[in-house]
Automatic annotation (TrEMBL):
It comes from Cellulomonas edaphi. Residues 1-68 are annotated as: Disordered. InterPro entries: Aminopep_P_N, Creatin/AminoP/Spt16_N, Creatinase/aminopeptidase-like, Pept_M24, Peptidase_M24B_aminopep-P_CS, X-Pro_dipept-like. Its cofactor is Mn(2+). Keywords: Aminopeptidase, Hydrolase, Manganese, Metal-binding, Protease. It comes from the Bacteria. Residues 1-20, 47-59 have a biased composition (Low complexity). It is an enzyme of class 3 (hydrolase). Its EC number is 3.4.11.9. This is Xaa-Pro aminopeptidase. It catalyses: Release of any N-terminal amino acid, including proline, that is linked to proline, even from a dipeptide or tripeptide.
Length: 513
């Protein structure tokens, strides 16, 4: 990786004071800083090509989202930062991903804008954007001129290092939001702030620097207490997806299914490698980067006993013939919406009798959950339907110490020994979307058209579990699909990926050599 650089100076005398730690990264720098070099590197550049920016298909939808948020906070100034880079190691950063609330309200996904801030400024009722009580402004760091030091010397933002950023005009065209230089942000946030004036709310945890600026200018400590209400509202705003979001969710699922095809085709190679799970994972990660933005979360490629660990992401184990491999994976597309799909597959292409028995029980639980996922039902009803099947199946196998109906009592829950997680979670621009929503709108929320969530029951029998017969030990099964609630029921967005055991075996037979 190339190194950041700072101007080189003629032979220097030994410093008389210790060099601050923060400045020592420049010790390796070798960029010349002479006037001749500066004249040379900032001249001789052709004119930039004409802008190709077009209005994003998300722009009309994001305007409606901002209007809905505006209605909940009349008179308040709302600050939604994109966030900044996060350090991976020393002076190298992770790939930037904007805060989900910022992406949701602006439509900016892969169009990465670290340090950008969306502000909804309060205006007289009805005179704001689309008749709302707020006027949105997007504060960004624009592209630097080629006559500036930033152009060639700044490894975080300089065009030589990370490519050209969009101009203010380009961003305004694509988002439909008026733009301004981020240097104007502090003054803009301070305007009309006072005990009897504007209160400023900021999304907590998105950008510490912006939070500090807001804290300095707050007129009331009570405003800070309402930051959590803003985060809550932003999360709840995503409970029901609009048409653009549903389109992006289906795209993410479709690309994810393509990745599953590639992973199955690589199973023979995985069996030959000492860390075959990483062969599976690497196949999917490469696919996600080629066809989308990235993976939506760390891929789980859990073979054999590892499948009984719910979030197994080490993926450093072997993949053996005769065992199952549980693959939980999702592609995040350029808009940052992600799929979340799980299939448990027989490595050799055929289930054993006991593997099929466990798999069918989980599938039956999933089907019961699908039947419960209809408009007017409550989100918690989905889990209850799945658990009813799981408990009765475990009773049939003689594994419960009490009858299934007794186990299902909230005071007992014996069946949850083998499925400790929930059956569903909302899905969208975050893999666990809407996580800051109030319980009465999430767990106890009423299902309505436009909601997208997972259905993912499972059974996990650890290899050292003495409460189950030996034939079950070391088997973990989870089946996960992405579900859209419609006016008259639901749609399985991931239905194109086989679910039935016979269909899985036939599908794998076509893919394996």
């Amino acid at each position: 990786m190339s190194q950041d650089v700072t101007p080189e100076t003629p032979a220097q005398a030994a410093p008389t004071e210790p060099q601050p730690l923060a400045d020592r990264g420049s010790n390796r720098a070798q960029r010349p800083g002479s006037p001749e070099f500066l004249r040379w590197i900032t001249s001789g550049w052709d004119a930039r090509p004409a802008s190709s920016a077009t209005r994003s298909p998300a722009a009309d939808h994001t305007a409606a989202r901002r209007s809905a948020l505006s209605a909940q906070f009349p008179g308040d100034r709302l600050v939604v930062p994109a966030g900044t880079f996060k350090v991976r190691s020393n002076d190298t950063d992770y790939r930037f991903r904007p805060h989900s609330a910022f992406a949701h309200l602006t439509g900016l996904g892969v169009e990465q804008e670290p340090d950008a801030v969306l502000v909804l400024h309060p205006v007289a009722d009805g005179t704001g954007d689309d008749g709302s009580g707020h006027r949105a402004v997007l504060y960004v760091r624009p592209m630097a001129g080629r006559d500036t030091d930033e152009f060639f010397s700044d490894s975080r933002y300089g065009e030589f290092w990370v490519g050209a950023r969009p101009t203010l005009e380009d961003l305004e065209t694509s988002t439909g939001i008026p733009t301004a230089h981020v240097d104007e942000l502090r003054d803009a946030l301070s305007k009309d702030v006072g005990p009897d004036g504007v209160q400023v709310l900021v999304v907590p945890g998105a950008d510490e620097t912006i939070e500090a600026v807001v804290e300095e200018i707050r007129a009331s400590e009570a405003a800070g207490e309402r930051d959590e209400k803003l985060a809550e509202a932003l999360s709840e705003l995503r409970l029901v997806k609009d048409a653009y979001e549903i389109e992006q969710m289906q795209l993410a699922v479709d690309v994810t299914i393509e990745g599953f095809v590639k992973m199955v085709a690589r199973l023979p190679v995985a069996q030959e490698h000492a860390r075959g799970e990483r062969v599976i994972e690497g196949t999917f990660v490469g696919h996600a980067r080629q066809e989308g933005n990235a993976v939506g979360y760390e891929t789980i490629a859990a073979a054999g006993e590892h499948a009984t660990t719910l979030h197994w992401t080490e993926n450093d184990g072997p993949v053996r013939a005769g065992e199952l491999v549980l693959i939980d994976a999702g592609v995040e597309v350029d808009s940052l919406y992600t799929a979340d799909v799980t299939r448990t597959l027989p490595v050799s292409g055929t289930f054993t009798e006991v593997q099929r028995r466990v798999y069918q029980a989980v599938l039956d639980a999933a089907d019961a959950a699908f039947a419960a996922a209809v408009p007017g039902a409550r989100f918690r009803d989905i889990h209850a339907a799945a658990m009813d099947v799981i408990a009765h199946r475990l009773e049939d196998w003689g594994l419960l110490p009490v009858p299934a109906e007794v186990a299902l009592d909230p005071e007992n829950q014996h069946h949850r020994r083998w499925m400790v997680h929930g059956t569903s979670h909302h899905l969208g621009i975050d893999v666990h979307d809407c996580a800051q929503a109030r319980a009465e709108l999430y767990l106890d929320g009423v299902l309505e058209p436009g909601m997208v969530f997972t259905i993912e029951p499972g059974l996990y029998f650890k290899s050292d579990d003495l409460m189950v017969p030996a034939e079950y030990r070391g088997i973990g099964v989870r089946i996960e699909d992405d579900v859209l609630i419609t006016a008259d029921g639901n749609v399985n967005l991931s239905a194109a990926l086989p679910r039935e055991p016979d269909a899985i075996e036939a599908w794998m037979a076509d893919l394996l050599p």
